[in-house]
Design goal:
Mean pLDDT: 75
Number of strands: 4
Order of helices and strands: HHHHEEHHHHHHHEEHHH
Number of helices: 14
Structural class: mainly alpha
Strand content: 5-15%
Number of domains: 4
Length: about 325
């Protein structure tokens, strides 16, 4: 407790000496009660109030107030303890205590919450005609261009499909742009005879399709796309909706650039043994296609053999 100058009094053995005044203030801080504090020093409460009114008791009154504040805080601590732990209530059976139970005072709990968190549990009603702060803030935001843009962006994000953000959409758009560019590049390299560049671009296209189709589940995609031999020994090709869309994109690019359309592959259905259309020249065209495939295979083998000295030597010996 703060130091204070005791009230000047004529000395008496049973009177309010300086030591008793200080002891009274300490007891008042501990108990929060004038009656209990006076009894602790063997003085009367009436004598304490009389001393408080005497001239020169200014510091004594200030110490009294500080002691009561400290005592009230002790009461708050007791109230909090009772709110948390409850109050033990003894249980009697045939005149003897056989146990106890805890009683929790909900009214005490709500009182403490309203006192310590008034904004949440005891909001003060606004005077009639007063505008609520939330309304003022909302109107200010509506009149602020930056706030409007932020609100529109947040609303757009909230309306987006679950799991898809603006960053995801931007990434997908960039991937598709690169995909279309690489489709065109692969065809240009192929027509120019740049087999290495064409094959490299084709591998990149395949990687993009793998990522878009299965999000990293490469083995499942490979298994699904591999020609599966059924009981009738006819291969089937399977594709997801993304694969179908990518196939349509390829064909649209070929059509815009004036390239000849490739035969369509019925994805998801049994692949025909021959893509050629019928007609009187069916056999002739079939033979021409097989000859082209044979020549392509021979040129590919020759091209690969020319990459190394050993390969070229082995290829020449094989032809001889």
């Amino acid at each position: 407790m703060p130091e204070f100058t005791p009230v000047p009094r004529k000395y008496r053995v049973d009177g309010w000496t300086a030591e008793r005044q200080r002891a009274f203030i300490d007891a008042l801080a501990d108990t929060g009660s004038v009656k209990h504090a006076a009894r602790r020093i063997n003085m009367s409460p009436e004598g304490a109030y009389y001393l408080r009114r005497q001239p020169g008791a200014e510091e004594f009154r200030a110490a009294w107030t500080a002691a009561l504040d400290h005592g009230v805080q002790a009461l708050v601590d007791v109230a909090l303890e009772r709110a948390f732990d409850g109050v033990p209530i003894p249980i009697y059976y045939k005149g003897e205590q056989c146990g106890e139970k805890r009683w929790y005072n909900d009214r005490l709990l709500m009182f403490l919450l309203k006192h310590h968190l008034p904004a949440r549990y005891d909001p003060t009603p606004l005077p009639r005609g007063t505008r609520h702060p939330d309304t003022v803030a909302r109107e200010a935001a509506e009149n602020c261009p930056v706030c409007r843009e932020r609100a529109e962006a947040e609303a757009a994000d909230a309306a987006a499909p679950p799991g898809e953000s603006k960053e995801d959409q931007a990434w997908l758009d960039e991937v598709l742009k690169r995909y279309i560019f690489k489709v065109q590049a692969e065809r240009q390299h192929r027509l120019a005879g740049e087999v290495v560049a064409a094959d490299y671009t084709l591998r990149q296209l395949t990687h993009i399709e793998l990522i878009l189709d299965c999000g990293g589940r490469g083995m499942q995609l490979i298994e699904a796309w591999t020609n599966v031999v059924r009981a009738r020994d006819k291969p089937e090709r399977w594709a997801s909706s993304t694969s179908r869309w990518l196939d349509d994109t390829r064909r649209a690019i070929w059509e815009r650039t004036g390239e000849p359309l490739r035969p369509a592959v019925p994805l998801g259905d049994t692949a025909p043994a021959d893509w050629s259309e019928g007609g009187p020249t069916l056999l002739e065209r079939g033979k021409a296609k097989r000859d082209c495939e044979r020549r392509i295979a021979e040129v590919q083998a020759e091209w690969e053999a020319a990459a190394t000295e050993e390969g070229w030597k082995a290829w020449k010996e094989g032809r001889g």
